[in-house]
Write a structure and sequence with these properties.
By secondary structure, the protein is an alpha/beta fold. It has helices spanning 14-20, 52-62, 96-110, 134-144, 184-197, 214-219, 240-247, 282-305; strands at 33-35, 39-47, 65-75, 80-89, 93-95, 113-118, 123-129, 150-157, 174-176, 202-205, 224-231, 251-258, 268-275, 309-312, 315-318. The protein folds into two domains: 14-118, 2-Layer Sandwich (Alpha-Beta Plaits); 123-305, Formyl transferase, N-terminal domain (Rossmann fold), CATH 3.40.50. It is built from eight helices and 15 strands. The radius of gyration is 21 Å and the shape is globular.
Amino acid sequence: MRPPRGQPQRLTSALDNRLALGDPEAEVTGGDLIMSGARFVVTLSCPNRPGIVAAVSATLFEGGFNILDAQQFDDIETGNFFMRVAFNAAGGTADAAALRARFAETAAPFGMNWTLRASDQKKRVALLASRFDHCLVDLIYRWRSGELPMEPVAVIANYPRETYEHIDFGDIPFHYLPITKQTKMEQETKLWETVRESKADVVVLARYMQILSDGLAAKLSGNCINIHHSFLPGFKGAKPYHQAHERGVKLIGATAHFVTSALDEGPIIEQDVERISHRDTPEDLVRKGRDIERRVLSRALSMHLEDRVLLNGRKTVVFYG
C-alpha cells in the first residue's frame, strides 16, 4: 500500500531488498536463537505521536535485549518521526523470530515502516563503472581492508575487462555490457537481470557514466547510490573541471545521492568540498575532484550499509556514527 502523502517512504532491509529484486530463496527464518554478542539494528519511520520511543524500548526489554545505541529525529515540518536502534541480547540467548513478531505488533498501531537486520548480515553490492575507475578501485580497497562491511557480488561496466587489467577483482564476477544508442534498452535489461541474478541489495554507480532509464531508476529506488561532482556555480556537459577552472571557482565538491528519475536530483546522502586557488590548473582540479569523489562515495555507502540512512521524501535522515 502506498504511504499517505507526507508519510515517509518504506525503508527496506537487506532481506527486503532481495525480496524486491526477485530472490526466490530470500525468506525469514524463524526460531533462531541470538547469542549475547550478536548485534542487531532496527530502523523505523512513522507519523510522530507520543509513546513511540517508550514502545520500542519496552519491546526490546521484554524480548530480553539491551540497547547499545539509539538515535531519533522528529521532523516538525512534516510531522514524521525517525529512529535507529542498535541492540544485542541482554544475557545468554534471545529468540530472533519472537522479537520480529513482537516488533510487528508494536509497529502496527503507529503505522511504522520498519526494518530489522543483524549487523553481521552483510549487504550484497553490485558496482557499476565506466572508464574512470578511481571510485571503483577505492571501494574494492576499502572492502578488502575491512572498512566497508559488504559482499561485492558483481562489477558491471560498459568498458571491456582490459580497461581494468590493473585492478584485482579476485572472485568478483565481471560483466561487460557495452552500450550504444541502439542497444541501450537491451543492455539495460541485461543489467537489471544481472542485478537480480546476483541477488544484490545495493547498486553503486561508481562513476558509471550512463543515465539510467526512468523504469530502472524506479526499480532501484532507495537502493542505488550515485556520485557526481558539484560546483558553485554548476557546470554541466563535458570537462566540468576545465569549465570550473575557466570561471575561477574557489570551491569544488562532490555529492552522493540516491538515484531517481530526476537526473542528479535524488535525495542527498553525503557531500564534501575542497578549497582551491588561482594557482590550481585544470589537472589539479581533476586530481582533487577524484579524491573528493572517492571520500564522499565511500562515506555514503558505509552509512547505507550500516542502516544509517532513512528516506524522508526528497531528503534523507542520516544518523551519523
